[in-house]
Amino acid sequence: MGRIGPQVGTPASMRALNQRLVLERLRGQGEATRPQIAADTGLSKPTVGQALLDLEQHGLVRTTGRSLAGPGRAAVVYRAAPDAGHVVGVDIGRRAIRIAVADLEGSIVARLDEPNRCRSGSALVRTVSESVERAVASAGLSPHDVVSTVVGTPGVPDPATGTVHRAPNLPGWERRGLLHELVAALAVAGSDVDVVVENDANLCAVGEHALGAALGVDVLVCLTVGTGIGMGLLVDGRRSWRGSWVRTRCWQGPSRRRWGRPGSWCSTGEACAARRVGLRRTTGHSTAIYTPPGGRGTQNDRSP
C-alpha cells in the first residue's frame, strides 16, 4: 500500500526532493544548523529553511538548541526525529517467533519471543499477527504508529503466488496463497503500513552489510546453519538473485547441529530491513545505520 507522490518536474516534486535531501543529510550525518545543511547539500539557505519548516510541521525534524560556535547570532540546530515512525522486525523460526519494534534510528523499544508450537500455516499466521500486536502494544504504540513490518522466514518467498517454497520445517507454510494471508493479517485496516516478507538469510546479509561484520564489503555471502541451512548473497551491496539459486542448490535439509548461543538473536536483519522500508516511507531512501545489540558481527543462533 504505497502513497501517491507529486508528479515529477512540478514545484511540489522539487519541494519534496529538497525535503528528502535535507532529511537524508540529518539522518546520515547527524544534527546540523541550516548553514551546515546548505553547505553539505548544495541547496540555498532559503531553500533549506523552507524544507526544514515543512519537515518540522510533519514531525520529521525537531530543534535541539542553538549552536554557539562562531561569531554572530547563534544558529538553530536541527536533528531528525527518530520517533517519527516505528518499524517491526519478525523472525519466524521452527522453535520460536522473535519480534523487535524499533524507531527510525534502529533503537529497539520492545522485544517479544514467542514459542512456535503451530502445526499449520494458518495457525502460524495467526500467532505471528497476534504476537506483533502484543509487541507494538508493549512499546506503548498503536498499530498506526508502525510504518513498515518486515518478516524473515525460512525458504524462498514467491510474492506472485503468495507461496513460500522449500520451507519443510514449518508445517503448512508452503501452502499456496499463505503469504497473502500473512500480509493481510499484518496490514492494519485503514493504515499505510508496508509489509515485506523475505528469506531470513537474505535479511541477515542485509543487516551485516549495513553495520555488522560485512560493513564496507562489496560482495557478501552469509551462511546460516540452524534447523535448516540458508544463504544470502549481496553483490555490490545489493541482493543478488543468484543467491536464491545457490541457496536452493545447497540446501541439504534439517541440520542436526545448533550453532551460536542458545536463545540469542541478532535483530540486525529483520529490524534493519524494516528500518530501510520505514526510511523510504519518509525520505524515499534506503540507507540503513542500524546498530545490532552486542556490537558488530555478533554470532547468532539461527536454529529456531
CATH homologous superfamily classification of the largest domain: ATPase, nucleotide binding domain
Order of helices and strands: HEHHEEEEEHEEEHEHEEEHH
Overall strand count: 13
Helix content: 25-40%
Proportion of beta-strand residues: 15-25%
Largest beta-sheet details: 5 strands, mixed
Distance between the termini: 31 Å
State the secondary-structure class.
Answer: alpha+beta
Number of distinct helices: 8
Which regions have little confidence, pLDDT < 50, spanning 5+ residues? 242-268, 282-304
In CATH, the architecture of the largest domain is 2-Layer Sandwich
Shape: elongated
- Number of domain units: 2
- Rounded Rg: 21 Å
Q: How do the strands of the widest beta sheet line up side by side?
A: 6-5-4-7-10
Average pLDDT, rounded to a whole number, is 78
Keywords:
304 residues; alpha+beta; Arc Repressor Mutant, subunit A; Nucleotidyltransferase, domain 5; 2 domains; 5-stranded mixed β-sheet; 3-stranded antiparallel β-sheet; 8 helices; 13 strands; 24% strand; elongated; disordered C terminus
